[in-house]
Design goal:
Radius of gyration: 17 Å
Order of helices and strands: HHHHHH
Number of strands: 0
Structural class: mainly alpha
Oligomer: single chain
Shape: elongated
Helix content: 55-70%
Distance between the termini: 37 Å
Strand content: under 5%
Length: 159
């Protein structure tokens, strides 16, 4: 039996419209995060992780800016969730373990599980609050902004 025959099929989660929080820019960013997680493969893991980390910084920065500017009352709690995620991811990536298919699979599962849970609970809660307080016709104020460096840059620089 060859290596390919015994190799496990990668765990993938596809973006679904059911994941939308109905804030265009954040939905596009969430969708792209799923795309990046799907790209995680052993052969390109280092490059894909770097791309993913850079995009997480962009997304968190945009989301934080929108929450802060809108006066979202649960902003501080949401920020703590992002910090906890960043710390857990940094710890995982900082280990000296060699990359193999199993480790890539563990990372992919962790990221997908976190994304789905976070989007479907916390981000959806924000999306509902935002539309309730800003109106359904509210323009995405950060749709074309360049993210500002912030706390997540410092957290991810540990890696």
């Amino acid at each position: 039996m060859t290596d390919i025959a015994t190799r496990k099929e990668p765990f993938h989660v596809e973006w679904r419209d059911g994941f939308k929080i109905h804030l265009g820019q954040l939905d596009r960013e969430h969708k792209h995060l799923f795309t990046l997680v799907r790209k995680l493969e052993l052969e390109t893991v280092d490059k894909t992780i770097q791309e993913l980390l850079n995009y997480v910084v962009t997304h968190f920065t945009n989301e934080h800016k929108l929450m802060e500017e809108a006066g979202y009352p649960a902003f501080a709690d949401h920020l703590k969730l992002h910090e906890a995620f960043s710390n857990e991811l940094a710890d995982f990536l900082a280990s000296n373990e060699e990359w193999n298919d199993d480790r890539v699979q563990v990372l992919r599962k962790f990221l997908n599980k976190w994304l789905i849970g976070h989007i479907m609970v916390h981000d959806l809660r924000f999306g509902n609050w935002y539309r309730e307080h800003q109106g359904d016709d509210a323009v995405d104020p950060n749709a074309n902004d360049t993210p500002r460096p912030g706390w997540i840059d410092r957290l991810l620089s540990r890696i």
